[in-house]
Specification:
10 strands, mainly beta, four-stranded antiparallel sheet
Length: about 110
């Protein structure tokens, strides 16, 4: 059974940092490009960042470029998203996914002073 389990979300002040993790199982994680997608309250899905299977090529939405860093550890079957200089507009449910049908349930990130 394919599973993607996100963790690391929480309540953080503007300007703070968080590190999200996504533990993968049930498929060959190291063969898949992966991404982070978020959904803010009342809004649609927004692609945030992507990474190739080897972890040496990364992509970012303009809204997070320079503040977020995606990475992966294929030995641990884990995807990461480091959030720095967090803004109130980063409040959302963050999901990890491959570029197909594998999705996690998400971890909530809430920015509030």
């Amino acid at each position: 059974e394919v599973q993607l389990v996100e963790s690391g979300g929480g309540l953080v002040q503007p300007g703070g940092s968080l590190r999200l993790s996504c533990a993968a199982s049930g498929f060959t994680f190291s063969s898949h490009s992966m991404r982070w997608v978020r959904q803010a309250p009342g809004k649609g899905l927004e692609w945030v960042s992507g990474i190739n299977s080897a972890g040496d090529t990364t992509y970012y939405a303009d809204s997070v470029k320079g503040r977020f860093t995606i990475s992966r550890d294929n030995a641990k079957n884990t995807l990461y998203l480091q959030l720095n200089s967090i803004k109130t507009e980063d409040t959302a449910m963050y999901h990890c996914a491959n570029y197909g049908s594998y999705w996690g349930q998400g971890t909530q990130v809430t920015i509030s002073s």
